[in-house]
Design brief:
Elements: E1 3-8, H1 14-23, E2 31-37, E3 41-47, H2 50-53, H3 56-61, E4 66-72, E5 87-89, E6 95-103, H4 106-117, H5 127-139, H6 148-161, E7 164-172, E8 176-181, E9 190-194, E10 201-205, H7 208-213, E11 217-221, E12 226-231, E13 236-240, H8 251-256, E14 262-263, E15 266-267, H9 268-286, E16 292-295, H10 301-311, E17 314-315, E18 319-321, H11 334-344, E19 345-347, E20 356-361, H12 368-379, E21 384-389, H13 417-424, E22 428-431, H14 434-442, H15 454-457, H16 467-488
Parallel strand pairs: 16-17, 16-20, 20-21, 21-22
Antiparallel strand pairs: 1-4, 1-10, 2-3, 2-4, 5-6, 6-7, 7-8, 8-12, 9-10, 9-11, 12-13, 14-15, 18-19
Helix pairs in contact: 4-5, 5-6, 9-10, 9-14, 11-12
Length: 489
C-alpha cells in the first residue's frame, strides 16, 4: 500500500507536495519521493520517512508549478532506494509517474518490454512497468500534436495489458497532468480543485485528507476505469475508458485510511464506528464476563468506544502508544514487528490487573503483534484476555498491494476460531462477519455493490489470479525479502 499525490499549480508546489505526503505518511514508511517540473524535471527520493528525506536544500532545488509525490512500502521489489517512486522516462515527451497498487503480471510484462520493445527496466518497482507500457502506447501512435484522445488511447492500452490494481498520477512535460484508476477501482484516488492565482490549481491524491489540508475543494473520486487529463490550458478532460466493476479494497476502511478521509464517498470514521456497533452485537451473543474494553491504538479506538457504549462497559486507554514508532503491520520483517511491540505500547497495569479485559484491534494478520500484546496484558495481572477484531479473519494472499502475499503469513490460515485464540494466547477471539463489514461500508455509499475482500474470502475481482500466479508471487516475494535481509545485515 502506498500514497500518491500530484499537483498542477501556479507557483512552486514543493511545499504543498511535502504537506500532502505528511498527511498520507501512514500509507508507507519505507521510502518517499518528489518530482517537480519547471522546464526540466527535478527529483529527490530515497528510503525513510518524508521528514527525513527532504531538506531545505531540496526545497530550493525542487522548483516548479507542477509535481508528483509518493510514499511507499514495497510489495514488488526489495525496497531499495532504486525502487522509490516517482519514476521518470525521457521519451516520448518526458513522463513522470507514481502509483498505488500492485501489478500482478509485473515479471511477464518486464520480460515482454525488453524482448519486444528493447525497453530495459532498471528497478524492481512495478510503476516502471506501467510507465513503460504507457510510453510505448503513446509512441506507437506516431503523434504530431498530442491530444486528449491520444492519451486516453494510451491508457486504454495500459488497461488492456497491465493486470492488478493501480491508481496512477502522471505528468507529461509541457502537456499536462493525467490520473487514472484501474477498471476495478481497487485502490482509492480523488481529484480536487483550488481557486485563486492566475488559474485554478488541480490535485490528485490517494486520500481526501491530503487535499483537505491543502484547501482543495469540490473533491471527487477518480472512478474505476476512468482517466482525467488536465491540459496545459487547464482544461479538464474526463473519460471512462472501460466500464469495469468498481470493487474497492475493504481493508482501506479497516486499517489503511485515516479516519478523517473519505474513500469512495464513505467516511472512514463513520464506517469504523459502525463496525464497532455490529461487532458489539456479536460479542453480546458470546455472553462473556467483561470488565473493561481496551483499544489497541490507534485505528481500533473508534470501534472500541462504540463497543463499550453498546455493551455498557468501562472504556479505558490502558495501552499507551509511543507515536515515534512506525506502524508494525507495514514493517518489513517479522523480527522488526516483534521487537517494536514492546517499544510501541506500554500498559497502564492498574487498569488491567484482576480484570477480564476485552482487547479490540482492527485485524489479526500474522498474529505476532496480537500475541505479544496479549502477553503484555497478562503480565499486568489480567484474569481473562479476550480479543476482538473488527475485521473478518484474514486467510488468503493479497495480490493487489497489501504486504500479505503468502498463505503462511496468516494466523487464521486453516485454523478454527478456537485454534486462533490458542495461537495468540487469548481466552477467546471474536471476529467481525464479512457481511457486516460490507454493510458498514454501504451505509456510507449505497451505490457500492462489489468490493475486493480477497484477503477474507479468496475471491479476486480481476478474475485472473491463478494458483500458478499465486505461487510465482509468493516465490518472488520470498526472494525479495531475503535480498532485503542481506542488505540490512
Amino acid at each position: 500500500m502506498c500514497g500518491v499525490i500530484g499537483i498542477l499549480g501556479n507557483d512552486d508546489v514543493f511545499a504543498d507536495l511535502y504537506q500532502g505526503l505528511l498527511a498520507i505518511q501512514h500509507r508507507g514508511q519505507d521510502s518517499a519521493g518528489i518530482i517537480t517540473y519547471d522546464g526540466r524535471f527535478h527529483i529527490k527520493k530515497g528510503n525513510g520517512l518524508v521528514r527525513d528525506i527532504f531538506t531545505a536544500e531540496n526545497a530550493r532545488r525542487l522548483r516548479g508549478p507542477v509535481g508528483i509525490g509518493h510514499t511507499r512500502y514495497p510489495t514488488i521489489g526489495g525496497g531499495t532506494g532504486e525502487d522509490a517512486q516517482p519514476f521518470l522516462i525521457n521519451s516520448p515527451y518526458g513522463i513522470a509517474m507514481a502509483h498505488n497498487g500492485n501489478v500482478i503480471n509485473y515479471f511477464e510484462l518486464k520480460k515482454t518490454l525488453f524482448d519486444k520493445y528493447h525497453r530495459l527496466l532498471n528497478s524492481e518497482c512495478d510503476v516502471e512497468v506501467i510507465l513503460n507500457v504507457f510510453a510505448q502506447e503513446l509512441a506507437e501512435q506516431k503523434i504530431r500534436k498530442l491530444k486528449p484522445s491520444h492519451i486516453f488511447k494510451a491508457v486504454e492500452g495500459v488497461f488492456k495489458n497491465v493486470k492488478g490494481s493501480y491508481s496512477v498520477v502522471v505528468y507529461i512535460a509541457e502537456e499536462g497532468m493525467l490520473a487514472f484508476r484501474d477498471p476495478y477501482g481497487i485502490k482509492p484516488l480523488v481529484f480536487g480543485q483550488r481557486n485563486g492565482g492566475i488559474a485554478p490549481s488541480y490535485a490528485f491524491a490517494s486520500e481526501s485528507v491530503s487535499l483537505n489540508i491543502l484547501n482543495f475543494s469540490d473533491i471527487k473520486n477518480v472512478e474505476a476505469g476512468q482517466a482525467i487529463f488536465i491540459d496545459k490550458k487547464r482544461k479538464v478532460h474526463c473519460k471512462r475508458i472501460t466500464p469495469g466493476t468498481p470493487s474497492p479494497c475493504l481493508f482501506e476502511w479497516v486499517y489503511f485510511a485515516r479516519p478523517d478521509s473519505f474513500i469512495d464517498n464513505v467516511n472512514v470514521y463513520d464506517c469504523r464506528v459502525n463496525l464497532g456497533r455490529f461487532l458489539a452485537e456479536d460479542i453480546k451473543k458470546s455472553q462473556l464476563q467483561i470488565d473493561v474494553v481496551v483499544p489497541i491504538p490507534d485505528s481500533a479506538r473508534d470501534a472500541a468506544i462504540e463497543i463499550a457504549r453498546i455493551l455498557n462497559l468501562k472504556y479505558r486507554e490502558a495501552l499507551v502508544k509511543n507515536r515515534y514508532i512506525g506502524r508494525t503491520f507495514i514493517m518489513s520483517s517479522e523480527s522488526s514487528r516483534k521487537s517494536s511491540v514492546r517499544q510501541k505500547l506500554n500498559p497502564i497495569a492498574s487498569e488491567l490487573k484482576n480484570r477480564n479485559v476485552l482487547l479490540v484491534d482492527d485485524s489479526i494478520v500474522r498474529g505476532n503483534t496480537s500475541r505479544a500484546i496479549v502477553e503484555l496484558v497478562r503480565e499486568c495481572g489480567a484474569k481473562k484476555v479476550y480479543f476482538a477484531s473488527y475485521s473478518p479473519p484474514l486467510r488468503y494472499p493479497c495480490v493487489y498491494g497489501i504486504d500479505m502475499q503468502t498463505k503462511t503469513e496468516f494466523v487464521a490460515q486453516n485454523a478454527s476460531i478456537d485454534q486462533i485464540a490458542k495461537r495468540i494466547g487469548a481466552d477467546k477471539v471474536i471476529y467481525q462477519r464479512l457481511d457486516s463489514l460490507k454493510k458498514a461500508v454501504r451505509r456510507g455509499n449505497k451505490k457500492l455493490t462489489h468490493f475486493c475482500g480477497a484477503c477474507f474470502d479468496g475471491v479476486y475481482p480481476t478474475g485472473d489470479v491463478t494458483p500458478e500466479i499465486l505461487k510465482s508471487i509468493e516465490e518472488n516475494r520470498k526472494i525479495a525479502r531475503e535480498n532485503q535481509l542481506e542488505l540490512n545485515l
